[in-house]
């Protein structure tokens, strides 16, 4: 390399470092950005974090910089909030200011700002308002949606009976069950578990979850402008998303051909009616892009999060048979063996309710929540967070708070029971997040978890393949989310 080129590169590096030091001095301190580790040019704080365990790396930084600190994901500035007080203060007390959606480059490459989950501003407000209203019209929180879940629970039980007590990996079936519930809401259709289209969708979704929680994607999210053009698993992720969107588009076309504006049957029908009513409005958010992305958001969120929680829950019940026995006793006492569980039973089953809450707390499905952002320059505590700054809210730090949940690392349903054995609510229980961006399907997910778990345990005794002491229940965590390890079990039918 020519000496002049070397000198030029050294000068550029020095200038970059001086600029960073200068901007650092200006942006931190009282009335400015929260403190944080010094970022390097281009990569920011990437080299200071463990990309295999981003959540743990971010958690450890709070010991140095406090509950509110600044990081740089490449050139992207991120403010991290750690602990119940900071998270609640932002998402509830300053809910409007923190209601924008932060950047997650791999998802931004797919959504391009459309849809329900990753849209912003008036688009997000209109789509969220419409989605909540439509889901209520379709029975969310009502008896009609409960009947759909109960029906799917019967299919679930029959499918596990087919294993005839032999070792069974429950993963695929537990993915299909909540998927069918949300499909009945979106498409007015459930699929047979042997349906090839359903199997393909589950395979694509499963592959994408693995890619999304891989270290490679963490690197992509740090420096997307560079990694996007390289070969790698992100290309598979983007292609899988395209296939799923094409499937949804096919369903939309089918709905357009059969649409009865006076008798909408599902979410797509309601959306198409709005598209027709507002087609003259060039500013309308009821477009084909928003329809496809919103349906995709509902499909993914309604399928994967619940199925992952179910899989992790069964693994924990295998690990702790004494807890499973107590649930069996409560089911026998409250429900019996001659009728199906219903949501009214939950109020009479505090132990089962506590176990399900503890499963969700212990799994800690999305440790740092989906990213938020501030809509304007926002004063938060003694700092000022500039408009559009991405915000990470640590749900892990809340769900594993030692003061609220003593021995938080242990799986203990007692975390949600009082001294009399009654169910005990906790403000620290926020696996669905809180505030204006809380999950729109929280009510459905809670219903599914209760009805699916109770149906399984009403009909089966769970038997592990190995000694319960040797079962590893440690979730596989790679930053974005946590998933249970693979396992098999015996579903032994209960003699009625």
TrEMBL record:
InterPro entries: Cyt_P450, Cyt_P450_CS, Cyt_P450_E_grp-I, Cyt_P450_sf, Cytochrome_P450_fam2. Its EC number is 1.14.14.1. Heme binds at residue 439. Keywords: Endoplasmic reticulum, Heme, Iron, Membrane, Metal-binding, Microsome, Monooxygenase, Oxidoreductase, Transmembrane, Transmembrane helix. GO terms for cellular component: cytoplasm; endoplasmic reticulum membrane. Pfam families: p450. It is an enzyme of class 1 (oxidoreductase). Its main location: endoplasmic reticulum. One of its GO terms (biological process) is xenobiotic catabolic process. Its cofactor is heme. Belongs to the cytochrome P450 family. This is unspecific monooxygenase. It comes from Monodelphis domestica (Gray short-tailed opossum). The lineage of its organism: Eukaryota, Metazoa, Chordata, Craniata, Vertebrata.
């Amino acid at each position: 390399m020519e000496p002049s080129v070397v000198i030029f590169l050294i000068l550029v590096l020095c200038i970059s470092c001086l600029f960073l030091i200068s901007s650092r001095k200006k942006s931190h301190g009282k009335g400015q950005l929260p403190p944080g580790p010094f970022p390097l040019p281009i990569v920011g704080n990437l080299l200071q974090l463990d990309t295999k365990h981003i959540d743990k790396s971010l958690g450890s930084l709070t010991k140095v910089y406090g509950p509110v600190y600044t990081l740089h994901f490449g050139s992207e500035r991120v403010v991290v909030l750690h602990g119940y007080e900071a998270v609640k203060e932002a998402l509830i007390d300053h809910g409007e200011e923190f209601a924008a959606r932060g950047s997650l480059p791999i998802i931004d490459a797919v959504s391009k700002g459309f849809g329900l989950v990753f849209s912003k501003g008036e688009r997000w407000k209109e789509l969220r308002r419409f989605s909540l209203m439509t889901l209520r019209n379709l029975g969310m929180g009502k008896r009609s949606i409960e009947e759909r879940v109960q029906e799917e629970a019967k299919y679930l039980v029959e499918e596990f009976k087919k294993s005839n007590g032999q070792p069974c990996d429950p993963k695929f079936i537990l993915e299909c069950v909540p998927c069918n519930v949300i499909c009945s809401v979106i498409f007015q259709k459930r699929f047979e578990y042997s349906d090839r289209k359903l199997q393909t969708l589950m395979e694509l979704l499963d592959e994408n979850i693995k890619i999304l929680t891989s270290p490679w994607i963490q690197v992509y999210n740090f420096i997307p402008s560079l990694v996007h053009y390289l070969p790698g698993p992100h290309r598979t992720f983007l292609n899988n998303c395209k296939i799923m969107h094409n499937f949804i588009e096919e369903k939309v076309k089918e709905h357009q051909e059969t649409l009865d504006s006076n008798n909408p049957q599902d979410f797509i029908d309601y959306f198409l009616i709005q598209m027709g009513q507002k087609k003259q409005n060039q500013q309308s958010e009821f477009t084909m892009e928003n329809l496809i992305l919103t349906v995709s958001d509902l499909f993914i969120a309604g399928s994967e999060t619940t199925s992952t929680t179910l899989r992790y829950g069964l693994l924990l019940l295998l690990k702790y048979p004494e807890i499973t026995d107590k649930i069996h006793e409560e089911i026998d006492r409250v429900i019996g063996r001659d009728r199906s569980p219903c949501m009214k039973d939950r109020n009479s089953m505090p132990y089962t309710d506590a176990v399900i809450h503890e499963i969700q707390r212990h799994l800690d499905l999305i440790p740092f929540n989906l990213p938020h952002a501030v809509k304007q320059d926002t004063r938060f505590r003694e700092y000022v967070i500039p408009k559009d700054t991405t915000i990470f809210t640590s749900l892990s730090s809340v769900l594993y708070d030692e003061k609220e949940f003593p021995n938080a690392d242990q799986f203990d349903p007692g975390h949600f029971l009082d001294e009399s054995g009654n169910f005990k609510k906790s403000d620290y229980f926020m696996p669905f997040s809180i505030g204006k961006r809380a999950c729109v399907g929280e009510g459905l997910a809670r219903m599914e978890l209760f009805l699916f778990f109770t149906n399984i345990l009403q009909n089966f005794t769970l038997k592990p393949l190995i000694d319960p002491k040797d079962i590893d229940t440690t979730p596989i965590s790679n930053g974005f989310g946590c998933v249970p390890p693979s396992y098999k079990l015996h579903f032994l039918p209960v003699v009625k």
